[in-house]
Amino acid sequence: MIGRLGGGEFLMESLHCCNLEEFAAQFVLSEKRLIKKQSTQKRNQELYIGLVRLHVLHHAAQSPIFGLGIIQELGRHGYRLGPGTVYPLLHGMENRGWLRAGSAIVDGRRRKTYAATAAGRRALKTARERVRELYEEMFEDELS
Ligand SMILES: [Zn+2]
Fold first, then answer.
1. Cα–Cα 20 to 30 A to 129, which of 16, 45, 107, 119?
2. CB atoms < 10 A from the CB of 119, how many?
3. What is the CATH number of the domain that holds 60?
4. How many domains does the chain have?
5. What is the dihedral of CA 84, 88, 128, 73, to 10 degrees?
């Protein structure tokens, strides 16, 4: 049985807790076991998910985006993410106030669209500075 705690999955049956410390230790153990079972692709996805959010926000600030369109755009950049990942991600970004949902006809079909809100644009502005800083640090040798 798979349970959820703090956004992460863990194996319920492996948790026979007596006190909080033991529970925490078992939680970490079961999480490690679960991570071991994940594919490299799934593990790396967690590493890049912030970049994916910024990528989405970047495009949503230019013009409204929709699920399938952004899946294709991310694919173009080497992110192989399916609707099961991207739709909850868009929803999460809407709930955090960075995106606003709307609707539009795209290629003859009504699509749910997302556009960056004022808060999303502000967050993007700050994020751009951080990306620049990280970029410069990561490519220090190549840039000088
Ligand atoms: Zn792009």
1. 45
2. 13
3. 1.10.10.10
4. 2
5. 40
Q: Which of 25-29, 120-124, 140-144 has the lowest mean pLDDT?
A: 25-29
Same structural domain, 57 and 10: no
84 CA distance to ligand 1 centroid (A)?
20
* pLDDT higher than 70, residue 87: yes
13 or 100, greater pLDDT: 100
Do 66 and 120 sit in the same domain of this protein?
Answer: yes
Q: Which domain holds residue 11?
A: 2-37
Ligand 1 geometric centre to CA of 73 (Å): 6
- Say yes or no to pLDDT of 60 above 80: yes
Q: How far is the CA of 82 from the centre of ligand 1 (A)?
A: 16
Claim to verify: residue 76 and residue 108 sit in the same structural domain: yes
116/87 same-domain check: yes
Q: How many angstroms separate the CA atoms of 80 and 23, rounded?
A: 35
Percent of the chain with pLDDT over 90: 62
Q: Name the residues around ion ligand 1, CB cutoff 5 A.
A: 73
